[in-house]
Queue: 2 jobs
Job 1
Amino acid sequence: YTNKRVYWYTLSTAWDISTATFNGYKSVSTEDAAPQHVFITPDGTRMFVTGNSSRKVFQYNLSTAWDVTTAAYSTFGGVSAQDSSPTGVSFSSDGSSMYVVGSTGGKIYQYTLTTSWDVSTLSYLTYKSVSTEDTYPFGIFFSADATLLYLAGSLNDRVYQYKLLGA
């Protein structure tokens, strides 16, 4: 947020952040003055950044998988009609649905993408209010099997877990 960059680290031991080594960064300041959250596709070839000041989700292509220093801006999807302060983004495993959390309404917004992983093709679908738990949700993450949703709440400094219906 402060430096408007996405930083890249590798871990010599999987899941152990104490083994992290800094590899580089990608500045996203050209696209937004207040970037909030990053999501990278499972294959590591696309990166998405929520732009809080522009109220957009920016898409970048990575010429080398997982290497954010090779990211090149591609396109964006606007989310301002739903929330004036988007703070987090996540996707379904196939890239056909996008989820954005916003701190204006304390909601998770769901979008469909006509073309998977292409935010320029998004259409708003519905929302789920999470304001009972936290009015300033900041980050969103789905479990690999899509049965659980994790939400970081900035107001209460908590991580909330939701079991998804049908899971």
Job 2
Amino acid sequence: MTGSPSKPERDITAAMRRAVLFRTLAPAALARLAASATALKLARGEQVCRSGERCAGLYVVVSGRVMLSVGDPKSASKVIELIGPGGHVGLAAAALGVPEVVTAETLADSTLLLIPRAALLDTAAGSTELALQLVTALSRQVCGLITDIEACSLRSGRERVANYLLQNAAGAGARQRPITLPAKKSIIASRLSLTPEYFSRMLHELIAAGAIAVDGRQITVLDPGRLRESGH
């Protein structure tokens, strides 16, 4: 007779259920993945995985925040994405079985779940729902990268800053309420392919235009219409 899951197993299952990839997964498939997962607690500034090294599997962010970047942090690097709770790291490398092309580093004390590649692929082979979710997630990543290339190639720095703030305000459902940037301004600047100095100047211009108000990492969209005009 099978006993009830232990508290750590229940906690892992609950955390995975909150992840974007697994929200609609059937309980049996979710339980198989949860049984293979390992909880990791990382301090701020620790590396989850490094470019050029084989990824142990798929990492699911339970709490904290993880920064994905390319290049050498000691010389020149570019922030690709910021991953918060419910997001995941290493899907492409895990699916293909190839070394990572990005370096993942925690921006705050974080808890992650590591799902081994073999367990992920074995479960996907028997679950159409999971296989579809993986394909959807990878497709979104491709579309996101194309959008980033378009923005960096065809949009001005001012447009990039304005559109980034509008997206964050929309995602937070904020109107005349402060939104908190997910990282310090130099990291957001790198995410937008801007220098920190240029990013600060664009913020000051948007403040002067009456579109936003800034208090440290908190930004309030005062006039969405005016900010939207800056984004076109």
